[in-house]
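Working notes for the structural subgroup meeting. M.R. asked for a predicted model of this chain before we commit to crystallization trials. I am recording the input and output together here so anyone reviewing the notebook later can reproduce the run.

Input as submitted:
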Amino acid sequence: MSNFYYRSGVLDDWISGPGSIWEVGQQPSTVSSLESGKRYFFGIDSGTNSNVGGAQCGPNWIEQRGITANFMINMPDGGVSTQILKVTDLTIGASVT
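Returned structure, recorded in token form:
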């Protein structure tokens, strides 16, 4: 049996709080829109919508199990971007592949 854990939010109200989505090269701050061609950091430290402080969905939890996570961005006009994430470096601030 598999479990399905998820975390979701909108740009102005990301479950991790303000500063969880910001443009690469900028200081963490609240982003109200995403611009095509720009790159962004997403703070996805851990937790789910039903257990914000939990371990599920965090980099340690993903790395310890050797699993991948699916990261999806759903745009208001119907566009969707999906990335499969694998955590290989647990250094603070490290990017995932």
